[in-house]
Amino acid sequence: MQEPDTLRRWQLPRLGRTHLAQAEAPMPTPGAGQILVKVGAVALNYRDLLMIRDGMGMSLDLPFTPGSDMAGTVVAAGRGVTRFAVGDRVVNTFWGGWIDSHWHADTTLLGGPGPGMLASHVLIDAAWAVAAPTTLSLTEASTLPCAGLTAWFALAETGGLRAGETVLIHGTGGVALFGLQLARLHGAQAIVVTGSEDKRAQALALGATHVLARDDGDWPAEVRRLTRGRGADHVLELASGPNLDRSLQAVKQGGRVSIIGMLGGETLGASFYAMVLGRVTVQGIGVGHRRALEDLVRAVDANALKPVIAARYGFDALPAALDHLERGAFGKVVVTL
């Protein structure tokens, strides 16, 4: 079926939620090395809220289309494209141009300042996409580029997660629940710390070994008790701010803390002694590269891993989807087309 002459997209002529509006634009034609993708689903991230609010301090070309995660179908390919053909299902990479371990200075962030995914069609470099998992719908696959890969990069790619280890996870959002699922996939225990009693049963049903209340008692001491005094091998630090210091109290000697979120603030607070005497590796995780995303896709297909979808919203209901994301969700909030 022939594609229309125009595409639909959400855009911001000025930063701020009140300026978010739908618009039409001419349908682009892929140039050399590019693919045109008909978007099937866009998974929302907390980053999208920040980009819409103030651009996270970045210099953006306006009007700006937000959205960093997409799954869709290739409808046209430019000259020289060999990675994909028309009809292939793909997901985008978050870092356009970061292919493997070697970092390139010309990488770009999709969803700002690079192209945004909240559109009916997106034009991207073919090198900025990977084949979608065959076992997932486009809605499910759209959750992998940021949330899924962030958890994978922290635990499997850089953390070397092994069976029998313990992963401490803060919260029950997208990255947190992928971390829980990947921990169990590798034969590790998952301890979840949450401020919501309502989500306790859901986390246990998903495979958490223990769920601790963030505001109830000394949870770092409880983590040590549950691990027979050893502490957690890995921590997915999704709150940061002053919470980092408590995570350091819960991690083992020589353990690893992956800094991912900043719900507790942009400035980290931690004890010098806890970090140095504990010989702790503290690493910032900024999602990951394309090769790791390909590894994650293979793992998803081989193990029938199903991402946790909190809610699906139609394209026109983006404002309601953003409200849901801001309130907090158990899993991913996805906009479908």
Your description of this structure?
The structure is a single chain. The chain has 337 residues and is an alpha/beta fold. It has 2 domains: 6-146 and 288-336, Medium-chain alcohol dehydrogenases, catalytic domain (Quinone Oxidoreductase, Chain A, domain 1, Alpha-Beta Complex); 159-284, NAD(P)-binding Rossmann-like Domain (Rossmann fold). Helices cover 27% and strands 27% of the residues. It contains 10 helices and 17 strands. The chain has helices spanning 46-54, 138-141, 144-157, 174-185, 200-206, 219-226, 243-250, 272-277, 290-303, 318-327; strands at residues 6-11, 21-26, 34-43, 71-77, 89-92, 95-96, 108-109, 121-125, 129-131, 166-170, 189-194, 210-213, 232-237, 251-259, 281-284, 309-314, 332-336. Strands 3, 4, 5, 8, 9, 16 and 17 form a 7-stranded mixed beta sheet that branches. A 6-stranded parallel beta sheet has the order 12-11-10-13-14-15, with helices on both faces. Helix 3 (144-157) packs across helix 9 and helix 6 packs parallel to helix 7. The radius of gyration is 20 Å and the shape is globular. The relative contact order is 0.15. The model has no long low-confidence stretch (mean pLDDT 94).
